[in-house]
Specification:
The complex is a heterodimer of chains A (455) and B (224). Chain A is α+β, with helices and mostly antiparallel strands and 455 residues long. Helix content of chain A is 53%, strand content 18%. In chain A, the strands form three sheets. A six-stranded mixed sheet of chain A has the order 1-3-2-6-5-4. In chain A, strands 8-10-11-13-12 form a five-stranded mixed sheet. A two-stranded antiparallel sheet of chain A has the order 7-9. In chain A, helix 4 runs antiparallel to helix 5, helix 5 packs parallel to helix 9 and helix 7 runs antiparallel to helix 9. In chain B, strands 2-1-3-4-5 form a five-stranded parallel sheet, sandwiched between helices. Chain B has a four-stranded antiparallel sheet with strand order 6-7-8-9, covered by helices on one side. Chain B has a three-stranded antiparallel sheet with strand order 10-12-11. The chains are: A alpha+beta (455), B alpha/beta (224). Chains A and B meet through helix 4 and helix 5 of A and helix 1 of B.
Chain lengths: 455, 224
């Protein structure tokens, strides 16, 4: 937690405050536009009405030649000005009105609204004439008067916001903090856990939003616990499984040490070497299996299953011949499957080796590679005693050995074969061989794309 | 001393059989639980070395059933399972000793001898009767402190008789004690061995119970 990470609380508070502020400002903008519009209408109406009054009044009262300056009666008055022109002469004006016509463009601005500038101030002026066209009236209002009203309205709207926002942020902070309490409690609970404690987390009053996360977390714990248990059992099993060959090596070596008879000593020494080979094989199988279990996708290079089968059969043929076994390969010229050559060789060697081992001396062992639709089919059949159905179901169990067989084995081979087939997305089944009568193992692997078309 | 070795691993079974034979045991070897139970009930073994992970019947079941059948022979469990619950369960089910693989052959032999001795109520390693002292570990016999060289069968016969001092053993029982399977037993082998023992250790040591068998009288004196 040394690096500052984005805080959920900060985000929530920021969002709420930001949203409220944005909404408020939008409302203010709307009010401003509306108010300005209404204000313009209202004030323009007043100007027009005042002009109409002046026009009506002028006709009767102002007959004098000298222009009259109307006094300023209200503090607001300097912002309002008017001129009354009678037959081209200025008859009446407010004290702050200029002596020149407020709207100077003649002919065009006889009546209507106009925005002009007088002494550096903007003015809104309404011009009109009497019915006989001898009276010209200008009524003006300084534009900043309207702006002042607008500003006052805006101030009234924005000032509370400026005051409310920090308060809102504070209240939001507190509320969010309270709302996120269960999340922090979960964090504390997890932080206090020992790394090997994989029991599900039990929290009281979990909010419904957190329940799926907690359920997923607990599910993960259960799966990790199961995985660790499998690993632990595998390690223990593997260690136990190594004890027997080591015990055999030790016993045979001690027999050799204590044996006076040469033939018997030789037998014991040979058995010692055999025991070492077996222990080595077991270790290799354990390593293969652990590598396979560690996951990681295997290579997907095209592998010629036929060439591979030929290599494996050739390697195991001397052993078969020594036991009077008839080992043969039936295969098309080539059969490409995508996969890991090393792993597929391990698969083949395990299956052929097992067939040789368990079929007994003199038995026939047949390896077949064939294409079957989009699948490459690898069949290893033998003329041995086969495996009972009940035992076949247990082949996948690690270290399971078919009872009564005299051959030595770790029982890991099938587990390895299963894993290799699985990582190649193939299928594996065992049955009884129709031709040879013994065990028949069939592996199906997807063919390489090019190979399917060729087939 | 005739023992039954129950071990399904061919290499280990072969090694244990050869090794225990070197150390003076008569060893019969079976590879599965059913055969083990059958042989235990059929033959008077002095003891049994029992593996647990066995084909057909688990070693623990073999042990439990053997005890239910009233078989009291000492059983040494030899196994790869070293977890404490396994050990406890093994001993509770009726094992007399629990040894985890791999095991030293000499230690295994010593444990078997100790189990057999205790099973016969003999607290001491050496057996003694009428001036004859038998050392099962060293496979040596002395008469009044003087070494008496004995042939293997003679020693085994004397060992059985001394272990069962005070009890009459029939000729068939003695043959069963002395010979593991596949060893040819001459019809008068026991008589011949008894004759040799009497010649070497004195005629009064072994009594003949006519028409029944032989007995070595229990020694009244305390064992030194």
């Amino acid at each position: 937690m040394s690096r500052p990470s984005p805080s959920l609380q900060g985000r929530l508070v920021g969002l709420v405050v930001g949203l409220v502020a944005a909404l408020w400002i939008a409302v203010t903008a709307f009010v401003w536009v509306e108010t300005r519009h209404e204000l313009d209408e209202l004030h323009d109406g007043h100007l027009a009405q005042a002009a109409a009054l002046l026009v009506a009044q002028n006709l009767r009262e102002i007959e004098d030649d000298a222009p009259v300056d109307a006094p300023l009666l209200h503090r607001y008055a300097p912002r309002v000005a008017f001129q009354v022109w009678h037959e081209g002469r200025l008859a009446l004006r407010s004290a702050n009105a200029p002596t020149a016509p407020m709207v100077s463009a003649p002919g065009r601005s006889a009546s209507g609204f106009e925005t002009i500038e007088i002494d550096g101030h903007g003015w809104r002026v309404f011009a009109t004439r009497g019915a006989e066209r001898d009276v010209q009236v200008y009524v003006g209002e300084r534009s900043d008067a309207r702006a002042a009203i607008l500003r006052a309205v805006l101030r009234g709207l924005l000032a509370p916001l400026a005051l409310a926002l920090p308060l809102l942020a504070l209240a939001g902070w507190w509320a969010v903090r309270r709302g996120l309490l269960p999340l922090r409690r979960l964090g504390d609970t997890l932080a206090q856990r020992r790394p090997d404690a994989l029991l599900p987390v039990a929290l009281d009053d979990v909010p419904s939003e957190m329940a799926p996360m907690l359920a997923a977390l607990n599910d993960l714990f259960v799966r990790i616990a199961a995985l660790m248990e499998t690993e632990r059992r595998f390690t223990a099993d593997a260690a136990h499984e190594l004890r027997t060959p080591i015990a055999a090596i030790r016993a045979q070596a001690q027999v050799a040490l204590g044996e006076a008879d040469d033939a018997a000593r030789r037998h014991a020494l040979e058995a010692t070497v055999e025991g070492c080979d077996r222990a080595t094989r077991l270790v290799e199988q354990l390593l293969t299996l652990s590598r396979l279990e560690a996951g990681g996708a295997p290579a997907r290079a095209p592998v010629d299953l036929v060439a591979l089968a030929r290599t494996v059969v050739a390697a195991l043929a001397p052993q078969a011949i020594a036991h009077g076994q008839d080992l043969g390969l039936d295969a098309p010229p080539a059969c490409q499957v995508p996969g890991d050559e090393t792993l597929l060789a391990v698969l083949l060697r395990n299956l052929v080796d097992n067939a040789l081992r368990y079929s007994g001396a003199g038995a026939a062992v047949q390896v077949r590679v064939e294409r079957h639709g989009a699948q490459a089919r690898l069949v290893i059949a033998d003329a041995g005693p086969g495996i009972a159905e009940a035992d076949r179901a247990r082949l996948g169990e690690r270290f399971f050995r078919v009872l009564g067989s005299s051959a030595s084995g770790s029982g890991l081979g099938w587990s390895i074969v299963e894993r290799i087939v699985a990582v190649h997305h193939g299928s594996l089944r065992s049955g009884s061989s129709a031709t040879l009568g013994g065990l028949e193992v069939t592996v199906e692997l997807p063919l390489s794309a090019g190979n399917v078309r060729a087939a | 001393m005739r023992i039954l070795l129950v071990e399904d691993d061919p290499l280990l079974g072969d090694g244990l059989r050869a090794g225990l034979r070197q150390l003076g045991f008569q060893v019969d070897w079976v590879r599965d639980g059913e055969a083990a139970l059958r042989e235990l009930r059929a033959q008077p073994y002095a003891a049994s070395v029992l593996d647990l992970g066995l084909p057909l019947k688990d070693g623990m079941d073999v042990l439990a059933q053997a005890r239910r059948h009233g078989l009291t022979l000492p059983v040494l469990v030899l196994t790869a399972r070293d977890a404490l619950p396994d050990r406890i369960r093994g001993l509770d089910v009726g094992a007399d000793d629990y040894v985890v693989k791999p095991v030293d052959l000499h230690e295994l032999a010593a444990r078997l001898r100790a189990l057999v001795r205790r099973a016969h109520g003999q607290p001491q390693e050496r057996l003694q009767a009428q001036g004859v002292v038998l050392d099962p570990a060293g496979r040596s016999v002395t008469l009044d402190g003087v070494d008496v060289p004995l042939a293997g069968r003679e020693f085994d016969l004397l060992h059985v008789l001394m272990l069962n001092a005070g009890r009459v053993l029939t000729r068939e029982q003695l043959e069963q004690h002395l010979y593991s399977w596949g060893r040819e037993v001459e019809s008068n082998a026991v008589e011949v061995h008894v004759h040799h023992l009497r010649r070497k250790l004195g005629s009064a040591l072994i009594r003949t119970v006519r028409g029944v068998g032989y007995m070595l009288p229990r020694d009244a004196a305390a064992v030194p």
